[in-house]
């Protein structure tokens, strides 16, 4: 159920390996542990999806700005501490991945973690059985 | 105001007819009735938008996994029962549409229904008048 | 932190200049003032991202319908009045931008403003320093 959506200005498409970023973010999610040292995000339910914006406007539009938005939607009921750990894990990946670009160009990166408030939630999966429901 | 957003890994683009899926999902939304047997989603306000992710990472990345996320945002004030009926209608379409792929490949499908909490809501439409505001 | 996401049916791609729309929306956001006449959305943190849907279904599917969804996510703690002013500013831009299309074709446009409820929020930016943290 956890998923991370990455929205970004498409002027980054040739400047940053976004597939590699997705993989690093997913790997980071898989390392997050809760208070009982249990994996927070089930392996079979962890997914990162990235979407370049075909059109965009950033700030005053006077320079070649770029922007990346990382939004993680977690299942309900986790502690504030776990949400913070998840956010910090994503932030650390983003900082590592974009360090060079942050120094070389105008770019803004935002990481936000939301707790889902869904009124209905259903899953169909041929992936979960691979991972013993963890 | 209701809308359904479908986010999916682009390895499905040639394996599944996503335009057909959108139509089936919209048709299913139009059949949902409330406690008074009234159509829940106004015809002129029903829309399904699907976006393939240009980049993605799923689970441990060791196999060719696919993922589809269906997220319905409903107007406020509907009963839990109506939200559940809407979710079940979408789930049934997804199950029918992806039955073959669920058997043939690794794929995860999640259906979530959210109740919008918007602080502002405005509409401009040349579609609604066609449907007598139903 | 504020950002505006525009989701639209891709039958509009050749009928409407969506890059121009993004710029006009960002400019409108930058004009919104709070009760103390202070700019609500920091220049360096204002971004509009637009995504054409590769697949879609609208209403009964019997005509060539189009749809545009504008969703602004604001930071927490603003007054209802400020949220409404922000929504009205976006609605005014949408109305101006789509007036011709509203008269010429079937199109629905929805503007919604949400208040973010994020459990975690972090920023990395080489844009903000340009604007003195306003």
In short:
Chain A has 134 residues and is of the alpha/beta class. Helix content of chain A is 29%, strand content 33%.
Strand-helix topology:
The structure is a homotrimer of 134-residue chains.
Chain A: E1 3-9, H1 18-31, E2 47-53, E3 55-58, E4 65-74, H2 80-104, E5 106-115, E6 120-125
Parallel strand pairs in A: 1-2, 4-5
Antiparallel strand pairs in A: 1-4
- End-to-end separation of chain A in angstroms reads 12 Å
- Averaged pLDDT of chain A: 95
- The residue ranges of chain A in which pLDDT falls below 50 over 5 or more consecutive positions are none
Question: Structural class per helix/strand content of chain A?
Answer: alpha/beta
CATH superfamily descriptor of chain A: Macrophage Migration Inhibitory Factor
The description of the largest β-sheet of chain A is: 4 strands, mixed
Q: What is the general shape of chain A?
A: elongated
**What is the domain tally of chain A?**
1
Second rung of CATH, namely the architecture of chain A: 2-Layer Sandwich
What is the string of SSEs of chain A from the N terminus onward?
A: EHEEEHEE
Level of helix content of chain A? Answer: 25-40%
What fraction of the residues of chain A are assigned to beta strands by DSSP? 25-35%
Radius of gyration of chain A: 16 Å
Tally of DSSP β-strands of chain A = 6
Task: Give the largest chain-chain interface (CB within 8 Å).
Answer: A-B, 39 and 42 residues
Strand order of the largest sheet of chain A: 2-1-4-5
Oligomer: homotrimer
